[in-house]
Design a protein that fits this description.
Elements (H helix, E strand, L loop, with lengths): L1 E3 H24 L3 H21 L2 E5 L5 E6 L4 E2 L2 E2 L5 E6 L5 E9 L10 E3 L4 E5 L5 E2 L13 E8 L5
Helix pairs in contact: 1-2
Length: 160
């Protein structure tokens, strides 16, 4: 089951409101300890659902794309999807797409952070449930606290 990103955020918001409602109900009944545990467990489940639900990014042209959320594992053009901290990029353009990492401050590449090229008509899984810069150029510098930051970039019209 695939839904739009806005619908997914509404679902997450409703689940959070239900968790708060359960807490308030148990508090009203005088059983706030059990209500607190149920609320805490439900909020943890919502957090993990939010974090590990993969995104589907369909690129139609170098200016046009849509972001959807995969609620239940499905198949996208012969690629089986699964839960995890990742996004599936569908390249419906005639250009090659590039998924890269940009490092700010003192950050250095990690072993699992590699660039991925996505050929026209291809579907690839990339690390991270959110891509920071989609079909736009990244900032030359950003404000960071601590050592630095790593951002992800999906760009179009790549010459290999």
């Amino acid at each position: 089951m695939i839904v739009s990103e806005n619908t997914f955020y509404i679902i997450v918001g409703v689940l959070v409101l239900i968790a708060i409602g359960i807490y308030l109900y148990f508090r009203w009944k005088g059983k706030s300890v059990s209500g607190s545990w149920i609320t805490l467990i439900m909020l943890m489940v919502v957090f993990f659902v939010y974090l590990y639900t993969p995104r589907k990014l369909v690129v139609e042209s170098c200016e046009n794309y849509t972001v959807e959320v995969i609620l239940l594992p499905t198949q996208i053009e012969d690629v089986n999807t699964s839960y995890g901290y990742k996004s599936y990029v569908v390249n419906n353009t005639s250009n090659t797409l590039s998924f890269e990492y940009v490092y700010y401050g003192n950050n250095v590449p990690k072993d699992n952070e590699v660039s991925v090229f996505i050929e026209p008509g291809e579907v690839k899984s990339v690390r991270g449930s959110k891509i920071d810069y989609i079909l736009s150029s990244p900032d030359s510098n950003i404000r960071v606290k601590g050592k630095g930051a790593t951002k992800t970039v999906l760009s179009c019209d790549v010459e290999q």
